[in-house]
Amino acid sequence: MSVENAMLRLKKIFGERFSTNKSILEVHGSDESYFPCTPPDGVVFPISKEEIVQIISICSEENCPVIPWGVGTSLEGHSLAFKGGITIDFINMKKILEVNEEDLNVVIQPGITREELNQELRTTGLFFPIDPGANATLGGMAATRASGTTAVRYGTMKENVLSLEVVLADGKIIRTGTRAKKDSSGYDLTSLFIGSEGTLGIITEITLKLQGQPEAVSAAVCAFEDIESAVNSVILITQMGIPIARIELVDSAMIRGLNLWDKDFELPETSHLFLEFHGSNNGVKEQAETVGEIISEYGGSDYKWATKTEERNQLWRARHNAYYAAKALRPGCMVLTTDSCVPISKLSEAILETIEDIKNSPLEGPIVGHVGDGNFHTALLLDPNEPKELEIAKEISAKLNARSLALGGTVTGEHGIGKGKMQYMHKQHGEAWQIMGGIKRTLDPKNILNPGKVVSLN
Amino acid sequence: MSVENAMLRLKKIFGERFSTNKSILEVHGSDESYFPCTPPDGVVFPISKEEIVQIISICSEENCPVIPWGVGTSLEGHSLAFKGGITIDFINMKKILEVNEEDLNVVIQPGITREELNQELRTTGLFFPIDPGANATLGGMAATRASGTTAVRYGTMKENVLSLEVVLADGKIIRTGTRAKKDSSGYDLTSLFIGSEGTLGIITEITLKLQGQPEAVSAAVCAFEDIESAVNSVILITQMGIPIARIELVDSAMIRGLNLWDKDFELPETSHLFLEFHGSNNGVKEQAETVGEIISEYGGSDYKWATKTEERNQLWRARHNAYYAAKALRPGCMVLTTDSCVPISKLSEAILETIEDIKNSPLEGPIVGHVGDGNFHTALLLDPNEPKELEIAKEISAKLNARSLALGGTVTGEHGIGKGKMQYMHKQHGEAWQIMGGIKRTLDPKNILNPGKVVSLN
Q1: B160 interfaces chain A, CB cutoff of 8 Å
Q2: Of residues A144, A185, A240, nearest to B425 (C-beta)
Q3: Disulfide engineering: B154 pairs with which of A234, A395, B129, B394, CB 3.0-4.6 Å?
């Protein structure tokens, strides 16, 4: 029983689709987190759930860690092989298995990315709304309970996955949920696997809810004198129940990064909201008018419309590349991204105190936020050759996370735990973290599924 | 270690708030299901979570079953004491602990009913939208993952509970989730407890999401020549993404029942849709116009408006009392209610074949449905003194449930498993049911929490 045995057996079955090539291992040892490269012992590229059953069965017999891999956009080291083992790369499992247009759902393999999916759906008049920015795989998004810019209107992966097919640690396949919109039959296993980060089972099929493409879409940008006014208008917009599709805070530092990153971008260096409205022609008009009134009440100016698809795409491309725009502020830097989410009434307080902490440090930390959900990110920019900077960033992050918890929020609104947030799990969940550990032990008694993440078994 | 010991110890602590009075036991032995009265050994009336910790600790030490009780509106025997033991009645735990208006949420004790809650919230401009018809407690609604007429717009309890406080089988208190709108920190325990029917822990506090009261509300009734046309218009309305707040099918037999039950009700005895729109003044007008067009395309007539609050209330009071209206068709009868939920593309097929089955039986079975979700109920009317009728009803129900599963749906869209649907759990979930059993064993190793429900430990 060993990782070596597992590798020999996998090589025999998968041939060239099992690799121990150094550069392939290294690709699977680096994500978008601040962790150093941590490669697995081998990478396997299955094409079917049957093959995944084979892999898991072998790894179970050989007590070998198994780590699922989408496209490596994780920010907390979810898919890094801290305990060695075999990485399962889903790149050959991108099939759309069924589009059920009448039922507004689609059945997919987990390796397809959200942009690939929406490209394929384009002719149906339907789309999958969740948009974390990164062109992540749907499997990865389900496993981390991802969300992003549109969650304020459409919810997170939790609200948008109808059912899953999962290979368990013993190689059995189960199906959670049904194709019906609602289900009250027993424990909600679908929700249990969403956000379990590959530690309870390997997702092999996902049924996603789809939305009709809205009749009208319009986007706008608005500048504010200070962050507080921007956040306060968001609070009022949310409270009034306006079904806004996106409402993103971009602080002055991040605007500077965007201006640097995209030469066509020339916004004044102050806090902005980026907004998008979905609905009928009249509905969008009405939403935009009401929002406009609220914004001007809080001193917002330059309520500029991006009416053409091209302008709108430029806007969201910019927002979605905030990670790279932030990097443009300090070329060659590494980024530690925070992910606080608090009750919206506490959002101003959380952001302003964080800005104060950053000001009092030697680091830069531009801020963006899915503020309609109370969620914001600080991109702390670090010199990779200065370990002290990583320490300072971790201190700022620790203060921020303590603040989130004190304000009734969470240390991660959408990025997940991986290894990066493990230290906060007991603080956030108390005894409930033990319950998570108990569930892990029940579903994965040998601790082979992405070990060392989410739960502690000590 | 015995139920008797537990009772002695509880009596000592709770005095008059612990009862073995026969009539009190009988009240807690009957819900709205077809099961005969199955009383517990004792009923305790705690006033705080600390007292619930005491109760659970004693029952754990004494290996005594514990069954939570709201107001007894369950349709599947969820809270009946099939294995004896102690029922915890939440009638003295109705407090609203916090209303967080800015964050659109409320913290409550589980014994408050949804009508009581909305009564208290009236002055805030906020409301809790989930409406299962019965004036159930929020604790019961969370425990059964309830939904009802408004789920088509606002979702089910799964989407509307932000966090829970739960007393576990060993008397420990945990808190699941946070006050933030999103959370990616580990396994989704909130969703695990919602729908667990008291088998994994006792809910002692619930944080619910609230909605702003819509600017405009309007309701309408529309008659159709046949059920198929009504269902087809619902399918199109759903597919067009119209954010309708309620869309209910009421078949001709149920209309007859309503006309009998409420003398002010005089609708033609044919299939109807009852509709409600929420939104801005313009938004509601626009929705109603689009829906009107679709309905007339499918031959719907008599698109009558209930514009006044009083008319609207009459309409929904009638719909919500369908259970009693159905009973009016056969005075003194008992009701077996089915709860099929299928993908909406299969809804016509599911309903029409069920009607055929009922026609071929000696029973009457009026139908209502939350058709926007693919969910419908047949109220099979039985003579309580004719055991053969119950057998026939169970046969019709079994055929219906097999059909739901074959069509990719569930045997219960919103009523839950209790004891009534246990026989379908393996059929619906296969191996996944074993996983539920494993989770139960982990959280409740002595099987004291509502034993015999949801999972099988054999």
Answers
A1: no
A2: A185
A3: B129
B384-413: pLDDT as tens digits: 999 999 999 999 999 999 999 999 999 999
The string of pLDDT tens digits covering residues B350-360 is 999 999 999 99
Q: What is the pLDDT of residues B188-206, one digit of tens each?
A: 999 999 999 999 999 999 9
Residue B173 forms contact with A (CB below 8 Å): yes
- Any CB–CB contact under 8 A between B155 and chain A? yes
Domains plus CATH for chain B?
3-89 (3.30.43.10), 96-212 (3.30.465.10), 216-406 (3.40.462.40)
Min CA distance, B331 vs chain A (Å)?
A: 30
Q: Which phi and psi angles does A199 have, rounded to 5°?
A: -95, -10
Residue pair A373/A345 in contact by the 8 Å Cβ criterion: no
A412 vs B contacts (CB less than 8 Å)? 183-185
Nearest of B148, B341, B337 to residue B246 by alpha carbon? B148
- Show the tokens assigned to A374: 């109370």
Predicted pLDDT at A302: 67
A435 with B414: Cβ contact below 8 A: no
ipTM comes to 0.96
Strands (E) across B181-333 are located at 202-209, 211-212, 216-223, 246-250, 272-279, 301-306
What are A10-64's pLDDT values in tens digits?
A: 999 999 999 999 999 999 999 998 899 999 999 999 999 999 999 999 999 999 9
Choose among A366, A378, A372: nearest CA to A340: A378
CA distance A340 to A325: 20
pLDDT the model gives residue B277: 95
